[in-house]
What we know:
alpha/beta; 18% strand; globular; five-stranded mixed beta sheet
Amino acid sequence: MATVADDTTATPEELAARSNSRYPNESPEYRRARTALLAEEIALRRQIERVAEHRRALPPGGEIPRDYPFESEDGPVRFSALFGDHDTLVVYSYMFGPERERPCPMCTAFLGPLNANVPDIQQNVAVAVVARAPIERLIAFKRERGWRDLPLYTDTTEAYGRDYLSWTDQGDMPGYNVFTKRDGTIRHFWGGEMTGETADPGQDPRGAPDLTPLWNILDTTPRGRDPHWYPKLDY
């Protein structure tokens, strides 16, 4: 007989019924509704994994057009060097152009938690955060926020951001792209494409799953996400 750990045939409802979680003074109505929600959460977990499997099965993406130049905290560097010893590179495009006095608060809300996880992520893949602002300004803001581990780079020619849909004539857009290096060839693997054109009515454009812990925490609360609230750099 299959155990709970290896039973892949059970429905979300059957798995939810196995839960023994109970809280003080909860009503029967609460428990019925919570168990129904648990089934939905289990179904969502399975859907997330199905999407991840589809993503991992993508055919090879396009080869990068050039070995982009960047400015790092230690001097000039090329895109190919950002991989280090890894064969996979995650690049986040930060909305912090030279014309901005301060960077995007939404991007910053994502990068704070990312900074904390960089040492863990780098056990598996390389990480880079790129922006158009001069490297001196990026370093100054990094120190202000106490970001010890976040690898920051200036897209000196803006060629990378323009090729990968972050810097446009209309302004900066956040971007999340993954690249692979196989046999010396660097290819684009995957990029977030949930933009304003794909947003659902009444919602801000967002990816799925949402990569920012802030929003995931708020999604578990009674009021959820306030559509009129945005994070700030200072409170």
